[in-house]
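Structure first, sequence second, as always.
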């Protein structure tokens, strides 16, 4: 019977990994048709980013229902520094006539010359593309092709339609470059970390499979629940899959390597590794998912859509790293670690651990280290006072596109008026009264009625102040205050609503994130003090990271403003992801404490055994988010920079020094009010090699 049991166990060891592989092949076969369709449901219309309940969103939605559907508005800008010639004006008329002949325009274009004679603008509007982004982009490109054939005359195509096309091209270009750059960065770091020609490839392939799975699940969410899929949210989902997934792989592989020295069979060693680090990985992914799902309470469409997609990315990475990765590692056996193969019964090569040295320095004077670190983080956080104001629409590109150049030319040539209309939607029966009220409003230069349909009339308003200036903002606010039952929208109004709604979302989402993360930590660590310590640490990191951003965004990067969503999104990601490393450290510290080890030794042993993994994971996660700094939009560059800096601060300062020193200073009180806090204080023991129970 003994032989039969042994044979049965051996058969199980061989069968389980192959069964897992077969299940994954089946899952990918089912998901594959849907993953390929995710790009088809990705949209970057303004309504995909605007606040759900704002005036500007209602305007955009109603305009889609008016005769002809959504309007694409362009401005053809003709400019010559020394003044336009008669031939220039003839060229402009010929081009505009050609555009009108090739496309169904809403009205015949009328040229508006500047007072100084250097510029002539032709506003052009069409309902031809409707809400189809591809048709809109094709229309803009066709107009630009005509306009750019003007010889030495400077011709720029701007307006809200051109701006949307330029932004869409940046978002559509994220997919390939973002994925390739992320894969390249992660591959390089894994090669340096593992120093193996084979091992680095296994977690990278698994992360790629997890990313493909997440694309299929994200498409399913869109079809079932109408979840918004934008270029920003799908890009962040990819980064989370590779960043968080690689973190989980690093922790698992590190623990697996330990177990292979204690346990002869790879299958049994993997089971022990999963038992040892599985709870920490599950709790880690749980905090990230819980934090991201709090974004569902946001009113901003882009934030609310990012929550489910980010959660899908993290959970797909979790499932892949806890099932597919172990199966592949077991099947490949010890040789996957070549040339540094962990032989059974061997001990790792003794060498001075950097993290042991860092922990020892934190353990000698924990209160001094803690106070110095707190002062440093507080000083860095003061830099947030230097953050530039809200970024204007024309300043949101890293490299200035044509639509922004056109807007700048118009602002200089027409200083007394705005070339960017304010859109007002009013009940059709009150259109005349509303028009009269608009014309009587301070700051309004002109107002004209447009389309009527579905019980609404469109009124185009020209402000006397430049777009997105303080004076134009005041004009929009006066219109909203005085026009009961009407909606005020347009590009400038959209920026106002984005800023106001982000402020409102912060007030709601931030407490939800803190509460959800805290509850998960309390359940995992069976303590109240340790979770509060970890949450306070990541909040301090967030403040310091924003402060560093304030010191470099304007002076170093030359950014003219800060994206209004930076504070909220960076908070959600840094708190949720930063707590990951605290979980890895504290979970190991709790294991040591449960074995009766004294608090100081438990803290230092936990840092020594997890420090290398946390450092590697932090570098990978920071590098994946740093990929965003190479993208073409200021909001992505700022978000990627703040999160990357925050992760590095969290990894090498907060986790290593501050959390460790605080744990040493508190002793067993760090586990209050759990049973570990009431255990008798043992004598100080030497740090020992970890033993997995």
């Amino acid at each position: 019977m003994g032989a039969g049991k042994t044979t049965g166990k051996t058969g199980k060891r061989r069968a389980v990994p192959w069964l897992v592989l077969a299940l994954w092949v089946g899952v990918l076969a089912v998901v594959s048709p849907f993953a390929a369709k995710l790009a088809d449901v990705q949209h970057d219309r303004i309504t995909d980013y605007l606040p759900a309940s704002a005036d500007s969103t209602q305007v955009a939605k109603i305009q889609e229902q008016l005769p002809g559907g959504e309007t694409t508005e362009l401005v053809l800008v003709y400019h010559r520094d020394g003044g336009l010639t008669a031939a220039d004006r003839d060229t402009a008329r010929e081009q505009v006539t050609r555009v009108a002949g090739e496309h169904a325009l809403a009205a015949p274009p009328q040229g508006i010359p500047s007072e100084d004679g250097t510029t002539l603008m032709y506003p052009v509007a069409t309902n031809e593309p409707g809400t189809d982004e591809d048709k809109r982009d094709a229309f803009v490109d066709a107009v630009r092709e005509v306009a750019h054939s003007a010889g030495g005359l400077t011709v720029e195509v701007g307006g809200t339609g051109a701006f949307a096309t330029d932004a869409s091209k940046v978002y559509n270009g994220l997919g390939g470059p973002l994925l390739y750059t992320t894969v390249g960065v992660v591959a390089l770091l894994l090669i340096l970390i593992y120093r193996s020609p084979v091992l680095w490839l296994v977690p990278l392939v698994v992360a790629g499979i997890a990313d493909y799975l997440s694309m299929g699940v994200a498409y399913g969410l869109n079809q079932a629940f109408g979840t918004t899929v934008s270029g920003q949210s799908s890009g962040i989902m990819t980064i989370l899959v590779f960043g968080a997934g690689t973190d989980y792989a690093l922790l698992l592989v590190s623990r697996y390597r330990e177990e292979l020295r204690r346990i002869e069979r790879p299958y049994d060693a993997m089971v022990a590794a999963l038992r040892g680090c599985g709870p920490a990985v599950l709790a880690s992914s749980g905090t990230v998912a819980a934090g991201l799902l709090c974004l569902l309470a946001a009113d901003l469409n882009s934030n609310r859509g990012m929550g489910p997609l980010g959660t899908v990315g993290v959970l797909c990475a979790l499932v892949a790293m806890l099932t597919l990765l172990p199966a592949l590692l077991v099947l490949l056996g010890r040789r996957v670690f070549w040339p540094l193969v962990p032989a059974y019964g061997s001990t790792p090569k003794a060498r001075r651990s950097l993290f042991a040295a860092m922990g020892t320095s934190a353990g000698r004077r924990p209160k001094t280290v803690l106070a110095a670190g707190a002062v440093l983080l507080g000083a860095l956080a003061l830099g947030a006072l230097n953050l530039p104001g809200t970024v204007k629409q024309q300043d949101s590109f890293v490299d200035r596109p044509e639509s922004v150049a056109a807007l700048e030319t118009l602002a200089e040539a027409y200083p007394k008026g705005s070339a960017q209309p304010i859109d007002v939607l009013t009940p059709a029966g009150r259109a005349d009264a509303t028009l009269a009220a608009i014309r009587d409003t301070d700051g309004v230069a002109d107002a004209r009625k447009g389309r009527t349909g579905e019980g609404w009339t469109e009124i185009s308003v020209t402000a006397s102040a430049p777009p997105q200036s303080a004076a134009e903002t005041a004009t929009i606010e006066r219109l909203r205050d005085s026009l009961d039952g009407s909606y005020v929208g347009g590009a400038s109004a959209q920026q106002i609503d984005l800023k106001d709604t982000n402020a409102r979302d912060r007030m709601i989402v931030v407490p939800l994130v803190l509460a959800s993360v805290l509850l998960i930590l309390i359940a995992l660590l069976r303590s109240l003090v340790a979770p509060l310590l970890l949450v306070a640490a990541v909040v301090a990191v967030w403040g310091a990271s924003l402060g560093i951003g304030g010191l470099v965004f304007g002076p170093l990067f030359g950014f003219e403003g800060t994206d209004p969503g930076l504070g909220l999104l960076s908070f959600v990601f840094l708190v949720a992801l930063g707590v990951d490393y605290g979980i890895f450290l504290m979970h190991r510290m709790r294991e040591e404490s449960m074995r009766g080890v004294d608090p100081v030794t438990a803290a230092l042993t936990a840092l020594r055994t997890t420090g290398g993994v946390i450092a590697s994971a932090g570098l990978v996660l920071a590098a994946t988010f740093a990929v965003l700094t190479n993208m073409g939009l200021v909001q992505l560059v700022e978000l990627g920079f703040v999160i990357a800096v925050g992760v590095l601060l969290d990894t090498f300062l907060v986790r290593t020094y501050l959390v460790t020193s605080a744990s040493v200073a508190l002793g067993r009180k760090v586990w209050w009010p759990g049973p570990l806090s009431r255990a008798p204080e043992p004598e100080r023991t030497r740090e020992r090699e970890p033993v997995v129970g």
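Margin note: The beta strands are 72-79, 112-113, 119-126, 154-158, 422-427, 444-453, 456-463, 487-489.
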